[in-house]
């Protein structure tokens, strides 16, 4: 029995050949359907999926070539091998030009035919794999439009237009959820690499030991679990753009390797001595102050100067005048509205989680609201408490560092002297209506807010690993309960 069972369709008007070939292939472990004409073959193709089809070229009625044409027109996803008698080689060449993958001249041994059918199946498999990879690389999703009418966003759009065509590395700075990935895609879309791969990696979301293999690839056997050669994302992005999110989290040991690839485009897969060359435009993003990281010895200065040739600064949402209302209406489904109090509250809220949090709040409210109108009752506690506790519209005007002024500090456990004043009252411990999940979520988000969206500091303060914090934030975003314990 051959290694891989193939589902094949054999189309030949010669009864004896068809039958003996069918029997042989079945003995070899394949599944075979036999068709005596093009019409019969098409009816099989309509009903079933095949890996490979073998067409005789000379058939009465519909020839093999006409059948190939129909396969094309009807978009049947099958690899075609042609069988031809003498004198029809030209027709075969034509068939190959139409996308057939191989041809054999009769008489041929059945073993030879089986071998060619196997090759055709492998080719089909590779084609599919390639399509899937392309779909992953291009992510097959539309690039979100960068919404914003504020002066800062207009200036940012102007900068993107200037920076995009240069192919130079770009560094995007901004708090979490401000839209750094949207900006990265905008840069790529406005560059001449728009139709080339756009590949992303988030250094903070991967265990450090995986980042190297993801970025640079590995050779089979180079570590436990490396069961096959694998290209890294630099190779996948070759000719296109690589977006490295949270570049400040790049393990120090990998920083020289990134510097090298940025300097001369050369890299080595883990466990491989062969040097490879790639041409990739790098866009990096960070919500940390990389200069501070350099001073603290966590980030190489030479790497910083390589990646920040052009820097785009993304302001927090609370500093984009007019954009909150614009975004609220943009993400509100058609036919829905906000009542005035809810809209005013949201416009004045300081959105520590930025646009991501805003989208979340709108999505949640549309699930809870009646009659397609969003009211205060549909807003999460951190917003609805603002008015109910102050008795007036909240003052959430923001300092330049993003912290809030105008409310008394009510937090019993201020984080440090620099932490901004609380903008939302603490939950009352012992309140029997509270769930543990609510407490965890509120506490985590509050600490994150107080630390200006800095996830590293937040994780440290909460005494959990940064990756755990990421998982928690993801769960909150998806409306899932926090994990059992912190
Ligand atoms: N200006 C904007 N217009 C439209 N959508 C936006 C805008 N900014 C952000 N978004 C949306 O907000 C969400 C978060 O954006 P994005 O992932 O780009 O943020 P980020 O700054 O990269 O966050 P993180 O630092 O956590 O990775 C996404 O759904 C994105 O499409």
In DSSP terms (H or I, runs of 4 or more residues), the helix count works out at 19
In which range does the helix fraction lie?
A: 40-55%
Which band does the percent of strand residues land in?
Answer: 5-15%
- Spatial sequence of strands, sheet with the most strands: 2-1-3-4-5
| Structural classification | alpha/beta
Provide structural commentary:
α2 (38-47) runs parallel beside α3, α10 crosses α12 (301-307) and α13 (323-331) crosses α15. By secondary structure, the chain is of the alpha/beta class. The strands form five sheets. The protein has a five-stranded parallel sheet, with helices on both faces. A five-stranded parallel sheet has the order 7-10-13-6-14. It has helices at 15-27, 38-47, 64-73, 89-97, 110-138, 151-163, 180-189, 208-216, 233-236, 255-264, 290-295, 301-307, 323-331, 340-348, 354-368, 381-390, 436-450, 455-462, 466-477; strands spanning 7-11, 31-35, 52-56, 79-84, 102-105, 170-174, 198-202, 217-218, 230-231, 241-245, 266-267, 276-277, 281-286, 310-314, 337-338, 373-374. It contains 19 helices and 16 strands. The chain has three domains: 7-137, Rossmann fold, CATH 3.40.50.2300; 151-315, 3-Layer(aba) Sandwich (Rossmann fold); 320-477, Helicase, Ruva Protein, domain 3 (Orthogonal Bundle). The structure holds adenosine-5'-triphosphate. Adenosine-5'-triphosphate binds next to α7 and α15. This is Two component, sigma54 specific, transcriptional regulator, Fis family. Keywords: ATP-binding, DNA-binding, Nucleotide-binding, Phosphoprotein, Transcription, Transcription regulation. The modification 4-aspartylphosphate is found at residue 56. Residues 146-367 form the Sigma-54 factor interaction domain.
